[in-house]
Amino acid sequence: MLDDSDVDTRQDRQPGREYRMSREPDYEPRYPGSGRLKGKRVLVTGGDSGIGRAVSVLFAREGADLAIVYLEEDKDAKTTCEMVEEEGGRCHLIKGDVASKSFCEKAVKETVDCLGGLDILINNAAEQHVETEAEDISEEQLKRTFATNLFGYFFMAQAALPHLKKGDSIVNTTSVTAYRGQVLLVDYSATKGAIVSFTRALSQQIAGDGIRVNAVAPGPIWTPLIPASFPEEKIESFGKHVPLGRPGEPNEVAPCYLFLACEDSSYMTGQVMHPNGGEMVGS
C-alpha cells in the first residue's frame, strides 16, 4: 500500500511513473485468454506502464512471450514483467532510448536472441510536452518529440523487418490528436499525424510480403503520461469532454492491439482503430 508521500497528482518528468499515480490505471485483462497469440514473440516499446503495460499483460494471457522496451522506469517495468510472467509468458526487459537507431537495432537483436525470433512489433513509446504557444516550442523539444514518437517507430520497424515473415504484424500507436489536433500539444500532434502516414505507406510497401501494418489512435486514456504532462486543473477534467464523459482505461484500449496483431484482422492493413470515447474523427 502506498502512503501519501509515494503518490502524485502531478509528476514532473516524462514519461511518468505508474506506481506514483494518485489513481492507478486499470490494466488487467477483462476476459480469459483464448490462445490467439500462442507461441508469438512480441516486442513492445513503452511497455512498462499505461497502454504498453495493458497490451503486454493481455498478450501474455493470449500466449505470447514478450520483450519490453522502456526508458528508465525500472519499478514500473519490473511490475509489468512480473504480471507477464504470472500470465505464463516469458518476459525480457530492455532499458534504453528508442530515439537512438543503434539502440533500436540492439533491442531487436536482444529480442530475437532471447525469445528465439520476432513475430509482432508494437511501437508505443511516446512523450509529450505542453506549450500554450507554438512559438515557445524550442528546437530541442521539437527534435526530441519527433525523435521519440516518430524516428523511434521508424528505427524499430527497420530493425524488425528482416525478422518478420508472412502473417506477422506491426501495430503503431498514433492518437486522436492526429485527426483533431490539440492546442497544447502542437508538436506531439504533428508526430501522431506522421505516424498515420507512416503506417499507411509502410503497409503498402510490405503488403506483398504478407506483413500487416496497422495503428491504434487512442483518445483520452488514463496513463502516466497524463500527470507527467498537464497541470492539475487539466488532470481533474481530463477526458470529460468526450461523449462517454470520462477517460478510458488502458485495458479498454489493449484489445484493439490484440485484434490487429492476431489473425482476427488478417484482411486489414494500413488501417487505424479509434478507441476514443465516442469522438467522431476522419479515418
UniProtKB/TrEMBL annotation:
CDD domains named in the record: SDR_c1
Family: Belongs to the short-chain dehydrogenases/reductases (SDR) family.
Protein name: General stress protein 39
The organism's place on the tree of life at top rank: Bacteria
Coiled coil: none
Residue spans of biased composition, Basic and acidic residues class: 7-29
Organism: Methyloligella halotolerans
Region feature Disordered, mapped onto this chain: 1-34
